[in-house]
Amino acid sequence: MTKQPAYRRVLLKLGGESLAGPDGYGINPDRAEEVAALLEEVRALGVQVAIVIGAGNLWRGREGIQRGMDRATADYMGMLGTVMNSLALMDALERAGIVTRVMSAVDMRAVAEPYIRRRAIRHLEKDRIIILGGGTGNPYFSTDTAAALRAMEIEADIVIKATKVDGVYDDDPNLNPDAKRFSKLSYIEALNRRVQVIDSTAISLCMDNQLPILVLDMWQEGSLVKAVLGDTIGTMIEE
Known about the structure:
Order of helices and strands: EHEHHEEHEHEEEEHHEHE
CATH topology: Carbamate kinase
Number of helices: 8
């Protein structure tokens, strides 16, 4: 008997680097196609998929801020970068035959639908992948926080933070070979440890609404499929 998914609807948080080339910058069409193939494996299980993507491959606001740039300006530039990434990923998905909609919190109707909660849910119910660009539409909030917010709005069952690391560690595994990976953390433990892989505002928001967060390595073979099937993988952050 085929194993059934553990979740009906998931929100997948991707870093902009997931679309980047070897140097970590720009949009690599080959990498976008690889991401699309991974997403198709999840959608094929009958799971509804929403995506929030960052813009670290195009713009790192903190670098501008360090040079004296206004924080709000830097954040708005990042929001525009997320829409560019959203369009690139949409193109890769649709070339793979997957109906996709890009919705933006920043109004730009020529390239994306405005984000409207009920419309987003309707797209999911019609088996479309939705990509939610523009962050929250407000400066001072990260795309991690946007992912947590959108996940609650669309009534997702879990936030999956897909990164290049296979979970949360007690130390940097790149520097310390003896670093210990946690299979599970409570929200409070994650906040107290100031985990670097997801920001504290997003964790607090999920904690207040009992929304679990799963941190995993999306490039580990079969990791996303294992996650939605409920297999033990990565680090689960929950009550």
